[in-house]
Amino acid sequence: MTLRYPDEPLDDLPAPPVTFTDGDGRSIEIKQATDECIEPLVDMYLEFDSQDRAQGIPPSGEEPIRKWLNIVTEDKSLNVIAWDGDEAVGHAMLVADDDGSYELAIFVIQSHQNAGIGTELLRTALGEGQSQGINRVWLSVERWNKPAIAVYEKIGFERMDDTSFERQMTVRLGAE
Amino acid sequence: MQLIVGVDGSDYGLRALGESLERAQQLGGDVTVALYSDGQTALDEIESLVSEELSAHDIDVDVIWLEEEPGSQLIELAERDGYDQIVLPGGQRSPLGKINLSNTIEFVLLNAQTTVTLVR
Question: What is the model's pTM?
Answer without folding.
Answer: 0.85
